[in-house]
Amino acid sequence: MNKIFCILILLVSGFHTSAQQKPDTVIVELGKTSRVVFTIRDRNDLTVLRQYDFQALFTDILNKVEGKAGIVAIEPDTLPEVVEEVEPAEEEVVTWDDDDDDDYNWTSERYKHYSKRTRHSVNFDLGVNNYLEDGKFPDDNNELYSVRPWGSWYVAINSIQRTHVGGKFYLEWGAGFSWFNFKFQNDNVLITKDDDGLIFQEDPRAAQGVDFTKSKLTASYINASFIPMLDFGGHGKKSRVWDSYGSNFRIGIGPYGAYRIGSHSKLVYDEGGKEKDKNKDSFYLNNFRYGVRLQLGIYSTDFFFNYDLNELFSTSKPNNPNLNAFSFGVIF
To answer: What are the residues whose beta carbons fall under 8 Å from the beta carbon of 102, sequence distance 6 or more?
Structure first.
């Protein structure tokens, strides 16, 4: 029995000295089928509980159990009196935070605990891309470099750091890889170039009865971004589409830059069997691209919109079209 009392005293002491835990109930297993349930609802009771004569308390409880079957409820006024009246010590004031906000687990007058200000995530951008020519879509003029809105995919994978600056203000910054896929409206568009720039024309084999099914231009980049964010939900951890939680609303806008690491054109056609013509070339694409990125989030869903401030193709060639690329979609 003395061993049980020591365990209970240690458990009570643990509640007072360990502010990093907040158990509501402690269960002590006794014998094969018996157990003691110890519950604290108000931490101010700890000072009083330290003064109880637990030997007398358990003797009284066991006497009641021996004479009565079932659950025995001990009323407060039947408990043994406190052995010694002690002036309550000044308790440490602790503020508990029971929500899922990991940025501030708890604070006190003597100690403050902060989790990591910066969290890492791997984000996937999936959407569509297109471009504007002097503020208009090229298909308004039936240009051969007009692209299909559906099928011109934008894909990116980014390693993102999310840093809490203060309050609702965060910074999302990082780097990754992105791909533009411009799928042309006409499936037989052939891209060539000369000293004056790019030439978009219909492949002459189309007049010979060759059935073309796809024509596209693809460019890949390594990119970096720096997006100041306002997160009105206040969650340090970034929510995802598949998460069951999320903050109410978040918004951010900031710059990005990218460097081209590859590009090619592709023609897919049927000439007695499926054929693919793939041509790796720079196509006078600008090596650098930069622009503005907008991010919007509601609960566990985030959207992005990228707009290139510089032109897709080099402006040093007079025949190059003046196109500003953009993309938008969902962040996973």
So the answer is: 115, 235, 236, 237
How many structural domains comprise the chain?
Answer: 2
Q: List 294's β-bridge partners, or say none.
A: 253, 305
pLDDT value at 46 more than 60: yes
**Domain range for 242:** 119-331
- Whether residue 245 is contained in a domain is answered as yes
Residue with tokens 């891309």: 129
pLDDT in tens, 109-159: 333 333 578 999 999 999 999 999 999 999 999 999 999 989 999 999 999
Q: Is the pTM of this model over 0.85?
A: no
Query: How many Å from the N-terminal Cα to the C-terminal Cα in the chain?
Result: 58
Chain position carrying tokens 């799928």: 183
* pLDDT tens string 155-165: 999 999 999 99
Helices (H) and strands (E) in the chain, counts: 3, 16
Q: Which of 59, 94, 129 is the last residue of a domain?
A: 94
Together in a domain, 231 and 136: yes
pLDDT band at 39 (very low <50, low <70, confident <90, very high): confident
Contact 291, 264 (CB under 8 A): no
- Measure Cα distances from 74 to 25, 58, 98, 174, 326 in Å: 17, 11, 31, 61, 72
